[in-house]
Structures are given as C-alpha cells and as structure tokens.
Amino acid sequence: MTKIIGYMKFHGKDLRVVKGKYATGLTAIFIEKMGGAPEAKLSTCVSDVSLPEDHFLAKTWGENERISVAAMSSGLFEDTGARFEIGYCVAEVWKIV
To answer: To the nearest 10°, the Cα dihedral for 75, 81, 86, 88?
Structure first.
C-alpha cells in the first residue's frame, strides 16, 4: 500500500512523492509523475538496517544526484546526519517531516 506524502517540482515538472514499504519493512519513497508513472526511486533498501517508520535510506548518488537535491529542497524531508555504507556508496538517512 502506498500513500502520497507531498508534492515537489523537478526540471519544471510537477511530481508527487509517495511512501511505501519494502519487503524488509523499511520505508520506500517513490517520486511519480502526476499521472502515476514512475520518475525516480528516492530510497534504497538493505536487509541489515532497522529504522523508525518515518526514516528511510536516501539514494543520493548516480541517477538520483539531482532529483535528491530537489526532494530535500521540497521541505518534505530532513537529513538526520546518519549514514550507512552500501558497497561503494553511502546512503543518507532522511526523516519524513
């Protein structure tokens, strides 16, 4: 089950931000076009991490580099300062505001 938690703009497009769950129980955050088509997956999932319901592992590298900046600027999230190494990358722990 997913829930729209807010809206944001990216490159002039209106987008909606949707919260869901991974099979591990971690919170998943998806960015979709207003019609529901996927735009980006803002979160990532690893099996050995436990976070509160309103926190998630933000994927801020690679193809998400620019959209993650827009997402953080939307006011929907706050960076907790916590980090988790995932292979060669580091996931930021964000809180849903």
So the answer is: 100
Query: Are the C-beta atoms of residues 72 and 10 closer than 8 Å to each other?
Result: no
Query: Global pTM?
Result: 0.95
Tens-digit pLDDT profile for residues 74-88: 999 999 999 999 999
Measured distance CA(15)–CA(38) in Å, rounded: 10
- What tokens appear for 24 in the block? 């591990």
The token pair that represents 19 in the structure block: 């919260």
The residue range of the domain holding 36 is: 3-96
3-state secondary structure of 71: helix
* Percent of the chain with pLDDT strictly greater than 90: 96
Number of domains in the chain: 1
